[in-house]
Design a protein that fits this description.
By secondary structure, this protein is mainly α. It contains 14 helices and no strands.
Length: about 350
């Protein structure tokens, strides 16, 4: 019971931390706008701070800039509408439409268009027919507080960000190959189908890894506190790119071994399980050099054992052995072995 409870507590804490940051940023933005700048109704400041920080780790700074672009367009359009035409339903509709058109013409993403529309609506709705600059200043305060939080106080370490995404992808591969090994031993078709399903689902963690790699590069380039990590981020991202190939190799291995004869499946099961174990170890500590070395050694040991296996050309066994060697080579490259130095037996 302690294990699941502890895991649930860690997951809750991880989810609650960004919410606490957003709450603190909103409060700080309100205090600055209300007591420093002395605006009487500075609701745009906390709203802007919360919306800007409402993004996945690594994307919050970019989200703040997008938010600010949308808010500026929306407030400026709303204020101009109020100044020229006054308030009212027709003016609100006009300001909303024009704000969205301008945001779209500027090539804005969906969040920019949505924020432009929302800001225009709020500006016209609360203006009571009176234009002013306070709402724009409040939005700038909120976005500024969000940038301080995302870029200085709580900016994620970019290499660690990539490695967390690597863990999810590697764990999925390990789980899929472990199920494949069990299916080979038990000859259960349902288990083999489940293994293939889990391996196909790798597209989601691999897509998240690709997004994280892009985000980590932006963090290293644009965040002052992490610019010294740029070279480390480049190396880690190059290494992580190997996981796309490794995921495809794992899917191919699961498909080809299931086409071999029952006797061949029994002989291949230990090798598949050993490769799953190497991936599981990497998922535990993807950045640990000894762990990577052990994974490379384990993969090489599997390759040497498989070299003794037969298989006529173009037979199911030959295809399975080729797929296994692809997985082995990809594991070794991810573990740090130069592709040109992968042993010939692989």
């Amino acid at each position: 019971m302690a294990g699941p409870a502890s895991e649930a507590l860690r997951r809750w804490a991880a989810e609650a931390w960004p919410l606490l940051q957003g709450t603190t940023a909103a409060t700080a933005a309100w205090i600055i706008a209300r007591h420093v700048v002395e605006h009487h109704q500075p609701f745009f400041a906390p709203v802007s701070a919360v919306v800007a920080l409402n993004a996945v780790r690594g994307e919050r700074g970019r989200n703040a800039v997008r938010l600010l672009a949308g808010v500026i367009v929306g407030i400026a359009t709303g204020e101009l509408t109020v100044a020229v035409l006054g308030g009212g339903y027709g003016r609100l509709a006009l300001a909303t439409f024009v704000a969205m058109v301008i945001a779209r013409a500027l090539g804005g993403a969906r969040i920019v268009i949505a924020q432009a529309a929302a800001s225009a609506i709020l500006t016209v709705a609360v203006a009571n027919g009176e234009a002013g600059t306070e709402r724009l200043v409040d939005a700038l305060i909120g976005a500024g507080v969000a940038l301080v939080f995302s870029q200085l106080l709580f900016s994620p370490e970019p290499v660690a960000l990539v490695r967390r995404a690597e863990v999810a992808a590697l764990a999925g591969m390990a789980g899929g190959l472990e199920l494949t090994a069990r299916a080979l031993e038990s000859q259960e078709e349902a288990l083999a189908e489940r293994a293939m399903s889990e391996l196909r689902d790798l597209r989601d963690p691999l897509a998240e890894l690709a997004r994280t790699r892009r985000a980590s590069s932006r963090i290293a380039r644009h965040t002052l506190v992490w610019q010294s990590r740029r070279s480390a981020v480049v190396r880690e991202n190059e290494n992580a790119s190997q996981l796309d190939l490794l995921g495809s190799s794992c899917v191919m291995l699961a498909r080809t071994v299931s086409a071999t004869s029952p006797l061949e499946q029994q002989s291949l099961a230990p090798s598949v399980r050993q490769l799953a174990g190497a991936l599981a170890a990497l998922a535990e500590k993807p950045g640990d050099r000894p762990t990577r070395q052990r994974a490379a050694d384990c993969a090489l040991a599997v390759a040497r054992r498989l070299n003794g296996s037969g298989g006529a050309p173009e037979s199911p066994l030959a295809a399975a052995l080729i797929s296994a060697r692809m997985v082995i080579a990809d594991i070794m490259v991810f573990a740090g072995v130069d592709p040109a130095e992968v042993p010939s037996e692989v």
